[in-house]
Specification:
The complex is a heterodimer. Chain A is mainly α. Helices cover 77% and strands 1% of the residues of chain A. Chain A has two domains: 69 residues, no CATH class; 253 residues, ABC transporter involved in vitamin B12 uptake, BtuC, CATH 1.10.3470. A two-stranded antiparallel ribbon of chain A has the order 1-2. In chain A, helix 3 packs parallel to helix 7 and helix 4 packs parallel to helix 6. Chain B is an alpha/beta fold. Chain B has three domains: 234 residues, Rossmann fold; 174 residues, P-loop containing nucleotide triphosphate hydrolases (Rossmann fold, 3-Layer(aba) Sandwich); 74 residues, no CATH class. Chain B is 32% helix and 26% strand. Chain B has a six-stranded mixed β-sheet with strand order 6-9-10-3-11-12, with helices on both faces. In chain B, strand 9, helix 6 and strand 10 form a beta-alpha-beta unit. The longest helix of chain B has 16 residues. Chain B is globular and about 70 Å long. The N and C termini of chain B lie far apart (53 Å). The chains are: A mainly alpha, B alpha/beta. Chains A and B meet through helix 8, helix 9 and helix 13 of A and strand 1, strand 2, helix 10, helix 11 and strand 20 of B.
Chain lengths: 350, 503
């Protein structure tokens, strides 16, 4: 029942968002039907489009699940962006110098990238544990430090002199992650992470404690949950997921090197996806896919129509507002209707 | 013609909780009108509607024969209606007069004439015979005096009708008597008083008329003549009050909890919150802690469960020193019902099932494999205890938010009592519950006592303490000032110690 309700809310709000955007496209004298058709064709229409969509969605799924687990545990990790960059730069640098066989190198590089992200989140975890510093601020600030620190690394010590922009050298070709017919292995890692995260949150004792902390931290503390060490673990684990996202971007993406801007907006998109998914990891996965369709379709849309791809950012924002708004509106009105019918009944009984 | 007439008031709290169904209430000028009913009967809701804090679902209100819409407390004050809440809304670091004039200051070019304001407030205080200095800081006043400041605040705003929401709940018997004299003085000067309570003897002592509410319905409005407490109780709960606690003599053999020389200093003010507290609890007995709220009983409980680290002293449970242990380690051997069920006792947005297995999840039998919880066991456990403790719910996946207050507390009690710990710490276990739930929880407490558990009971309800306890400590200013057998003293004597008036 609850699952059905949530799916229904998502579908209604996405449709609402599409209608609102259609009106806006219309006012710009473009055809909404053409725009949406292009979105569909380039986002879902063929295997090539679909596999490319899944590749685009992969980093979003990682950062989204990272944010969802953190928020659901009452840990405000907003540092996905910085953690992702630290993971990416570590993997990119090691990928140039490491000299081991491919079957071992790829997993090692991915995991080391993840640990780099965990380490970056670990700074916030340490500040929280020892100085009671709010991770909300520390993770946020570490984003900026991470951003410029990684650019520094790519601009000075590890600069590839042949590149036109500040970038590290290409990683060894043996460490390029394989793909199946265009679908990169990184996506399967994302699916694995989804299953692992779901299992952690729903089945394990620590996951139970974490969720209870998210609902009511005083309740959890008094009930005997290990609030401090769970928070630390959640920060490290979600940092690891973001770092892994960065590592896979290097190993499996298209650049295979660290360059300025490679983190795009994955960190913040992940936070946004987690919020619309109500911090539920499964919903986060599906919203990640959906935003992948939009991002990938946007490129085609720009080809075919006069609507610029930035329009998708606009559509995304409207969708977020619609989902959150619809959820509250449905809640509010269904309660109002229920209390009104109850009032009628009570008055009639008198 | 009635001064205030509320007609056919309905209130449905979303989604479908009927708080009031077609209640009429009329108030005459200059009377003391009591509104009585159990917790959850709708007394406070009805009064908050009159005070403009809650919007009724339907119904009308007339003041002096004119139909009015009271949409905010500001509007109510304009109509001369003032209310004193159970929780005070005072700023402790402000003087009495500053608190009184706050929000209604008379100022010249933005400056308040302090001296003038203080004099004006003192005038009001003297006119109605309160014994309070308007230049004192609120933080220096007792709870009873703070309550008076709240009343003065309403008088300053020219309230003709004063609604007092369970004013005696926070007072000792002596302070209550003083409050009643004050109320009668206010009546003599022409004010109308609405007195909300569920303590029948108080109601019979001071009211002119009494309105009885039960489950959101008005049962009757009666003149306070030739009516007995038993008759009122019958109207209030729908059956005669059968409530008698019988218990056998306790035969304790060993100590379960012993608190030795416990002291806690406040980090903020460097004041001692607890000083040199020594208490013990043995098997098969209920040990009560009486005291006016804020005298250290909350901190004492927090020390026992491990949330506050004491500055000195020791806590021993079952002969093991636990002073250095964490909450997690202590909760394996302590059952604990916190005073705030909504914010500490439960996670209202989690499911009932998840609420019921908290703390149990630390036990081996709820583990599965290396990391997982045994959800099958959790479910069967939840089904067993909800049945055993008579929790009424529809689905274990529902949120406790939808349960009534009594059922919420039963969830907490079911969880804690089924832990099987030797030591049970109860902090205000029946606060805000209706009579049936209170009775039920009292029965459970005695069952646990007879099952040889050691029970520490902190309560603001002196009657509860007198009835349940085998031994009773009185705490004041963070010190244990008395230690009684409740069979040998009466409530008044205990009250004297709570106030610190005993030589």
């Amino acid at each position: 029942m609850r699952v059905f309700r949530r799916v229904a809310i998502s579908i209604i709000s996405i449709l609402t968002a599409f209608v609102v955007c259609a009106i806006l496209i219309r006012t710009q004298k473009s055809s909404p039907i053409e725009v949406y058709r292009a979105l569909y064709t380039y986002g879902l229409g063929s295997w090539a489009a679909f596999s490319s969509t899944l590749n685009t969605a992969t980093p979003l799924i990682f950062t989204g699940i990272s944010a969802a687990i953190a928020f659901a545990s009452g840990v405000v990790n907003l540092g996905q962006h910085g953690q992702l960059l630290m993971g990416a730069v570590t993997t990119a640098i090691l990928g140039v110098y490491l000299n081991i066989p491919s079957w071992l190198g790829i997993p090692v590089l991915a995991v080391v990238g993840g640990f780099a992200g965990a380490l970056w989140a670990g700074i916030a975890a340490m500040l929280k544990r020892h100085y009671e510093m709010d991770e909300f601020i520390s993770t946020l600030m570490l984003n900026f430090i991470g951003e410029y620190f990684t650019i520094y690394l790519a601009t000075y010590p590890f600069l590839d002199r042949k590149a036109y922009v500040p970038a590290t050298r290409l990683i060894k070709r043996v460490y390029f992650m394989p793909d199946f017919n265009g679908l990169n292995v990184a996506f399967f890692v994302a699916v694995f992470v989804l299953v692992l995260s779901f299992w952690y949150m729903k089945m394990t004792r620590q996951g139970y404690e974490s969720r209870m902390m998210g609902y009511n931290v005083e309740f959890a503390r008094v009930g005997g949950c290990a609030v401090e060490s769970n928070s630390t673990f959640v920060l490290l684990f979600t940092g690891f997921l973001s770092g892994l996202a960065g590592a896979l971007l290097i190993l499996g993406g298209t650049q295979h090197r660290f360059m300025k801007g490679i983190g795009a907006n994955f960190g913040w998109d992940g936070v946004m996806i987690a919020i619309i998914a109500n911090n539920n990891v499964i919903e986060t996965f599906f919203y990640g896919l959906f935003f992948g369709i939009l991002k990938n379709g946007a490129i085609g849309m720009e080809f075919e129509t006069s609507v610029p791809s930035e329009f998708i950012l606009f559509l995304e924002a409207i969708i977020v507002l619609c989902v959150v708004g619809t959820r509250s509106a449905i809640e509010y009105y269904s309660q109002a209707i229920r209390s009104l019918t109850k009032l009628r009944k009570v008055v009639a009984e008198k | 013609m009635a001064y205030i007439q509320m007609t056919k008031i309905y209130k449905i709290y979303p989604p479908n909780v009927v708080a009031l169904s077609g209640v009429d209430l009329s108030l005459d000028k200059g009377e003391i009108h009591s509104v009585i009913g159990e917790n959850g009967a709708g007394k406070s809701t009805l009064m908050k509607i009159l005070y403009g804090m809650i919007k009724p679902s339907s119904g009308e209100i007339m003041v002096n024969g004119q139909r009015v819409q009271i949409t905010s407390p500001l509007e109510a004050i304009k109509l001369g209606i003032g209310m004193v809440h159970q929780e005070f809304m005072l700023i402790p670091s402000f003087h009495v007069y500053e608190n009184v004039i706050l929000g209604q200051e008379k100022s010249i070019a933005g400056f308040i004439k302090k001296k003038q304001a203080a004099n004006h407030v003192q005038e009001i205080i003297d006119r109605y015979g309160f014994k309070i200095d308007s230049n004192k800081l609120v933080s220096q006043l007792s709870v009873a005096a703070q309550q008076k400041v709240e009343i003065i605040k309403q008088l300053y705003r020219k309230a003709d009708i004063l609604i007092l929401d369970e004013p005696t709940a926070v007072l000792t018997p002596q302070e209550s008597d003083e409050l009643f004299e004050q109320i009668i003085e206010l009546k003599r000067q022409g004010k109308t008083i609405v007195f909300i309570s569920h303590k029948l003897d108080e109601v019979l002592k001071i009211s002119d008329r009494i309105t009885v509410l039960r489950k959101g319905q008005k049962i009757a409005t009666v003149e306070n003549k030739n009516i007995s407490a038993a008759e009122l109780a019958k109207m209030m709960i729908g059956r005669p009050l059968s409530y008698q606690i019988k218990k056998s003599q306790s035969k304790p053999k060993r100590e379960i909890l012993s608190v030795e020389n416990l002291s806690v200093r406040s980090r903020k003010s460097d004041k001692e919150i607890l000083s040199d507290v020594n208490i013990y609890v043995r098997n098969g007995e209920v040990v009560g802690i009486a005291g006016i709220e804020g005298n250290g009983q909350y901190e004492l409980v927090q020390c026992i469960i491990g949330k506050i680290k004491p500055d000195s002293g020791r806590i021993v449970i079952n002969n093991a020193d636990v002073t250095a242990l964490s909450i997690r380690e202590r909760r394996r051997i302590i059952s604990y019902v916190p005073q705030d069920r909504k914010y500490v006792g439960l996670a209202l947005k989690a499911t009932i099932l998840e609420n019921l297995i908290m703390t149990h999840h630390l036990k081996k039998e709820f583990h599965k494999g290396f990391l997982s919880l045994n959800w099958k066991k959790a479910k069967s456990h939840a089904k067993d205890v909800t049945k055993q403790f008579e929790v009424i719910y529809r689905d274990l996946d529902e949120q406790p938010m939808v349960l009534s207050g009594g059922n919420q507390q039963k969830v907490v009690v079911a969880r804690e009592f089924s832990l099987g710990s030797d030591l049970i710490v109860l902090d205000q276990p029946t606060r805000g519950l209706d009579i049936a739930s209170t009775e039920y929880i009292h029965r459970l407490i005695l069952e646990m006592r007879n099952a040889d558990k050691g029970i520490l009971l902190v309560s603001a309800d002196l009657d509860e303490l007198m009835q349940l306890s085998d031994r009773l400590y009185v705490i004041r200013d963070g010190r244990i000032v008395a230690h009684f057998d409740p069979n040998e003293v009466d409530a008044h004597t205990v009250g004297t110690y709570m106030l610190g008036a005993a030589g």
